[in-house]
Amino acid sequence: MRTPEMNRSARSVAKSGKGGAWSRRRRVLTIAVPLTAAVVGTAAALAAQGNAAVAYQPAPVASSAAASVGQPSPVVPATVPSPRRSVAQPADVSASATPTLDPAPASTVPTAPTSAPAQPIAPRSGNLDIAFSGISAPQQVEAGGAAVSFAVTWTNGTDHAYPGISPVVSALPYDGAPCNYVLSMVTGTLQRRDGDRWTTLPALSQGGGMDYATTGASVAFALAPGASRTIEYRMHVNAGNRTGDLVLEADAYASDHPDAFKRLAAQQTHIAVTDHHSPTVRVLGDPTELVIGRTPGQFRFQVTAPTDSDANLVLPTMSVAVPGKADGKPFGRDNLTVEALVGGTWRPLPIKEDCYGQTSPDLSVLGSVLPAGGTATYTLRVGLVEGWKSGVVYTLGAGADGHPSKPVTLTPPLAVPTASVSPAPSSAPTGH
Question: Domains in the chain, start-ordered, CATH in brackets?
């Protein structure tokens, strides 16, 4: 039987025995911790002295058998690496006591990346620029032919924005326009591409007012600095226009300005109007003398039909201009007579004022259908009333299916009759 004192003594002995075992275990752990720290420190030093591009991987921790109580891991003495050496692979503490060192790669100094030379930035023009594309001199457009497509680009070359630009394209006055007595307006059509459809504009020509300047209001746009906008157009010139130099103009009007006709910029391009379907006219022989108030002057001219059609309705034309005046009165149809030789008979023709403002006989009675390259000859005679003292000029032409010929002028010889002079009475001597 144990006494209480014996029990206390036994617990003290047991506690003392456990304490000894824990003391030994703490010593083992104390040895293991410096070992790990030494390996980590050594690797860090090697990485710092070697090539910085080599990534460091921590060394594996010693196996559980080596870390068991009573079997402490051997302590690996730290090895100081030589300069310019790096760790290729961290040492395995459990396999080798000495880390393996590989020669460090040659140190390189990083250089700045090489790039292509910077392309120069095109300076802005400082203006609101307009440019035609697809149509320019010496390009030709056929009167009565197919439509011609082109584009116009508006570019903001300034450093400020344009909140509203109204794009406008139109033709300037054209000398070859039909009926240009009041306005020389080329006849035809102009269309603008709006999205997926073509919009027919009111007219190709500017006309006599400023209505053309409002045709772009419905498609006005804003332009930021450096921005551009391109619009497509197509144009058709009618057959009634004569050949010549046609000027197209593209404008930029301020759609946001109180003045609807404030023009911001303009650009022009020249186009040659041609016609390969028009007839030709030539005078045959010399005209006879025209004696004012007495004898009409006679002449002949010939019209040749174009060669691209077998059926050409050919109509000759004629106008008469008299630069002078008779008795202070303007020249008109009452001062002129014109006759045509039809079937061997002289036939008087009606006189009118044509759309060119010229006094013109009506030659429609002489119209005929000609084959390709066919010819027709006309004989006319013109008389002037008494009182004219200046010359006259004829302008001859023809149309074939609406295509006009180039005009030909003719100045006939003109004679002004002299007044008959009665001989003065002679005075007989008187006798006495």
Answer: 4-103 (no CATH), 128-274 (2.60.40.3880), 280-415 (2.60.40.10)
